[in-house]
Amino acid sequence: MSGARIRLGMVGGGQGAFIGGVHRIAARLDGRFDLVAGALSADPARAKASADELGIARSYSDYAEMARAEAARPDGIQAVAIVTPNHLHLPVARAFLQAGIHVICDKPLTATLPEAEELARIAKASEALFILTHTYAGYPMIREARRLVAAGALGQIRVVQVEYAQDWLARPESGKQAEWRTDPARSGEGGAVGDIGSHAAHLACYVSGQPITEVAAELTAFVEGRRVDDNAQALLRFAGGARGMLWASQVAPGFDNDIRLRVMGTEAGLEWNHATPNLLRFTRLGEPAQTLTRGGPGFQGAARVPAGHPEGYLEAFATLYAGAADAITAGALPEDLPGIDAGLEGMRFIAACIYSSRANGQWQRLG
Amino acid sequence: MSGARIRLGMVGGGQGAFIGGVHRIAARLDGRFDLVAGALSADPARAKASADELGIARSYSDYAEMARAEAARPDGIQAVAIVTPNHLHLPVARAFLQAGIHVICDKPLTATLPEAEELARIAKASEALFILTHTYAGYPMIREARRLVAAGALGQIRVVQVEYAQDWLARPESGKQAEWRTDPARSGEGGAVGDIGSHAAHLACYVSGQPITEVAAELTAFVEGRRVDDNAQALLRFAGGARGMLWASQVAPGFDNDIRLRVMGTEAGLEWNHATPNLLRFTRLGEPAQTLTRGGPGFQGAARVPAGHPEGYLEAFATLYAGAADAITAGALPEDLPGIDAGLEGMRFIAACIYSSRANGQWQRLG
Amino acid sequence: MSGARIRLGMVGGGQGAFIGGVHRIAARLDGRFDLVAGALSADPARAKASADELGIARSYSDYAEMARAEAARPDGIQAVAIVTPNHLHLPVARAFLQAGIHVICDKPLTATLPEAEELARIAKASEALFILTHTYAGYPMIREARRLVAAGALGQIRVVQVEYAQDWLARPESGKQAEWRTDPARSGEGGAVGDIGSHAAHLACYVSGQPITEVAAELTAFVEGRRVDDNAQALLRFAGGARGMLWASQVAPGFDNDIRLRVMGTEAGLEWNHATPNLLRFTRLGEPAQTLTRGGPGFQGAARVPAGHPEGYLEAFATLYAGAADAITAGALPEDLPGIDAGLEGMRFIAACIYSSRANGQWQRLG
Amino acid sequence: MSGARIRLGMVGGGQGAFIGGVHRIAARLDGRFDLVAGALSADPARAKASADELGIARSYSDYAEMARAEAARPDGIQAVAIVTPNHLHLPVARAFLQAGIHVICDKPLTATLPEAEELARIAKASEALFILTHTYAGYPMIREARRLVAAGALGQIRVVQVEYAQDWLARPESGKQAEWRTDPARSGEGGAVGDIGSHAAHLACYVSGQPITEVAAELTAFVEGRRVDDNAQALLRFAGGARGMLWASQVAPGFDNDIRLRVMGTEAGLEWNHATPNLLRFTRLGEPAQTLTRGGPGFQGAARVPAGHPEGYLEAFATLYAGAADAITAGALPEDLPGIDAGLEGMRFIAACIYSSRANGQWQRLG
């Protein structure tokens, strides 16, 4: 597929960043992208040093200049990965979308809901595609869960319980990662609810097939001096009548990056945990619980290696990039790939949680 | 200890009942009680048949008559186990307490909050003791968790997540058990929130050492025609500033009787699951997670068999009976044994959840 | 059932013993025995003190005298529990069997194979029954596994892997328990292979339905100065052509009392672990793995409490006592209750392992 | 690092192969190799079609021709990945090693021990490097286990239990994979013992730091008509005095690709399972069990993503390729990368098992 490799650029992700490196491995894993240009830092020297270290041919320090220059080249990038702090997603995405370059953007969509609405307008007006890297939607067993729900294997969905817990912010933050993620100006007004709650909310909807319509939330900043929430708890109402709960915490000792999703219907239930991502517990009422596996009996998804050979986070992320490659080839997103709508929905969720919490937990409609 | 065995009676628990049999095994397991009298049914013939089958010497069909007669005998019962449907807890307990006979009562305390308040007044006025069988408080690792929290091993408690899920009412109920437990007249206005949510709330407080002060709840009756909730979701605020969530469901396919409690503080976290009751996950910030075991290194509680020999539900229940025996011998409840206050607190929790849910999730103070 | 309670005696199990207390709880749990006589110690004062502490009416210090006296009383014991060190099993059992009193004996059957053969002759000649408390055969899911194999659900059995690991003898022994269990004169020539390997071998045969015909064993005494093996590893050949492995260790750090049994046939496999005794993993070729539960869908065994309410070691032990009560009532052992044959088979296994190990692992036939 | 990318070739791995695709992803994941030449099939048309599909610039159908041609080019490959059936490892490796091209070879080393000895002589005489892809040695927690043992954290090693179980050959084989792996002419005389037992034996030695010196084995071909063993069971003696067991099975229903390694010493034990490869259970005598995690507290290895973000099989494989890149750059293998010695040791293990089994389980020395 070398001949057909998609030329990729990257904005953000210079030395010291976390998610940029993940995007690069993900883009490389299936051999469908070549990373050929980057604005890895706003500082030209650091941008250049990072690009050199990574063997990226063309280095920029200004994303707008990069968008213009790449759009003008016959061998310019076809897609750009945006891995900056959240407040830059809008301007960077705008620049590339308007230059006709496809965007693969990290989540959450933007720092604020108005920004998200503007980006949604721009994306919908553009012929370039917009892909949002909701990592966990790339896990094969999450997609299998989604397929089972859509196929009616659970009956009518009643209850959706989702949680995403970490402990890395249990003490006052230090370090580059922690700083921008707890700075409302760069990350947005949501702390845990934005950074990881948005993932959890997306998973709940992605698998259940039901949008969240209302939330009643309690956001707390436990660590003294913290400017955003570090623990978010919410009751959820879904479009199809399901009821749910969401917990997102960055102050939960013993939780590295634990996600648990449970979806229960009239006929059966499903449970998925990030710690064992290749398994899905499937329980039909009145029958023994089944453990479904990636690649195992009944599995209808795609897998790179057979059952019993664990795939993980990087493979899930790579699956989003494979989807992006398919999308770019086909000119449209496959139905299982999160795009601008999922991003906007996520920002509405965050905003509604913040609003509800400020209103002492009053139920708040999304959007 | 045969000479010192406590003479026990039982009200309720005739043929076809579930919890009565559990109480009988629990009373027998440590050899500290002799079950010598019973009003196992209001129907004299059934009462007699049940008593005969169980080898119970003295059978009554009227609990009031039993209280009078036993109080008058020199070899009359010293304590009575009440295992009737909830709406009978008050009159039965009153009869025995006022006859000076100690009461060991199943939970929840009563069917309604006013009944609970009345029973609390009676119990406090009585010289007889009142013990509430919150089963899960008898599990050694729950007590170990409580001890660790009290000793400060977790630092200041921030988050308490508790859940109790079953699936046996996922379809329209049938059978004696299901019928009374979903009948507001016999069980109370709370369905799942009363039957199992009260257990979950008790565990949350028992281990965290913090009373729940406010709840914001969403109670749902998913099964058509059901008169009480079968799924309860609530946000919790605790006296010490902790924030929590509680989920109690009887319509969760794949959950037999699953309880999960997580308590997280500034320094460490704890997790306990009913499916593996002899373990406790203990996670200090910045250290590898530890698996504490009943009887294992550091364990300070009591255990009947060494580490690696699983104890279960009946042993936990028996531990409450052993506590009751200690209490009766000492004339006062040990601090780790649930009594009338825990019962009243549980009823306040149920009432607050019902009120909050009817008020569309408005935060509601307990009591 | 009080009127029908079986009068029970006990030999051994005085103050400081472990397994005696377990037998007493097991006998009490289902209310089918009354412990009325005991020779709890050979020292009359200690025997009396122990009996008084336990409320046992008649105390003896000489088991032979006890057998004679009890056999002569109209209200004498009907059965005796033998919980002495292994070398006393033969003389004590002989005394009671010859007095016509049923014997419930702890395992292994005796200290040596010749003793076992003699006891087998005595037991078969006696009208009194002989029951061996192979605890793990009392676990409901072990019996369910046995039933599934017998029903052909696994097809033809190919592989049986069993292990039993502890760590309590990883260092030079101290304490009463450790001392007699590592003393060849009291425990027998087998150390780990006798104390716990015999349990593992029994489980393998009990579930697979196939006797072990040959072993090739490596017994090791890792702890300096230890007179018996503390780690036993063996290859197994079964009567039906299955091949197996057995590991029994008392020097395995991190293992409290862990037993794992896996039985695999042409059509399906089973796995059981002592740490989660209420579950059984059942895997049909080409189908998702199922988790069978005690009391759950498809379960055909007996359970005291519903699925989701864990039963443990004491309940398993009590189930053997319930079986013993059934046997005494019926005059014959139910087919799922280990008796003299299982005991003799276990001793043959131990002897064959010792012989094989001394012959540098040469395959050795049992019996 | 693009400028420094190593030019890689591949022999084998055309359409329909499994492990070839794994090697390609592994080589790509960290961006340190460019796959530029291949002899993917002996059939020129299929070789070309496979190469085109993969975007490989230079296609050969004859590996000897490829070795000559690439050695002669200034931009010829620096290393070759050999992913053919086992019987071709020797001739292919010889061709490339003698052409001065580094070899990255799949395991087991060869089909027979004499071939392995010859390859070892060639490799040692060559200036080119030889790397053997014992996948599981690339798992971070396996390396952490090895480090802990080497650092003395377990004390003196006593017991090593290892197993590797699959079920994909439980029925008569069909398909390309199954055919060559059960054909002695292509795979070697060992079936399960060679294909997966060699992995298990390597892990046991890699982590324990002790070579296996003797085996007593029982190899069985359960499936009718199978020409090689499909179930291997062995007792192990290690150089340092440890005793072990190894089970390798391809007829174990319910096991996809399950590996479990337990290493126990005088002071502590370790357990690793392939199903949860990011965890390591670490149990010091007399302390609570710890769960060590990749990236978590105390971890000293390398990881691509933080704790809580699962890495899997492909990352482990990629870590071997990263090690190969380091080795090629440095001119020598890092100490944690399996090479020709590990390969020869593995073949000695297989041969000794076959010999022992044929001699009815007699202990057989390796080498």
Describe this structure in words.
The structure is a homotetramer of 367-residue chains. Chain A has 367 residues and is α/β, with parallel strands linked by helices. Chain A folds into 2 domains: 2-135, Rossmann fold, CATH 3.40.50; 139-301 and 339-365, Dihydrodipicolinate Reductase, domain 2 (2-Layer Sandwich), CATH 3.30.360. Chain A has 12 helices and 15 strands. Chain A has helices spanning 19-29, 44-54, 63-72, 89-98, 113-125, 140-150, 176-181, 184-187, 192-195, 197-208, 313-330, 340-358, and strands spanning 6-11, 33-39, 58-59, 79-82, 102-105, 130-132, 157-165, 212-220, 231-238, 243-249, 258-265, 268-273, 279-284, 289-293, 364-365. A 9-stranded mixed beta sheet of chain A has the order 14-13-12-11-7-10-9-8-15. In chain A, α1 (19-29) crosses α11, α5 runs antiparallel to α12 (340-358) and α6 (140-150) packs across α10 (197-208). The relative contact order of chain A is 0.15. Chains in contact: A-B, A-C, A-D, B-C, B-D, C-D. At the A-B interface, β7, β8, β9, β10 and β11 of A face β7, β8, β9, β10 and β11 of B.
| Number of domains as seen in the coordinates of chain A | 2
Question: What portion of residues of chain A belong to β-strands?
Answer: 15-25%
**Radius of gyration from the alpha-carbon trace of chain A, in angstroms:** 20 Å
Helix content of chain A: 25-40%
Major β-sheet annotation of chain A:
9 strands, mixed
Supply the CATH superfamily name of the largest domain in chain A. Answer: Dihydrodipicolinate Reductase, domain 2
Uncertain runs of chain A:
none
SSE-based structural type of chain A: alpha/beta
The CATH class of the largest domain in chain A is Alpha Beta
CATH fold description of the largest domain in chain A: Dihydrodipicolinate Reductase, domain 2
Q: Which strands sit side by side, in order, in the main sheet of chain A?
A: 14-13-12-11-7-10-9-8-15
- What string gives the helices and strands of chain A in order? EHEHEHEHEHEHEHHHHEEEEEEEHHE
**CATH A-level architecture of the largest domain in chain A:** 2-Layer Sandwich
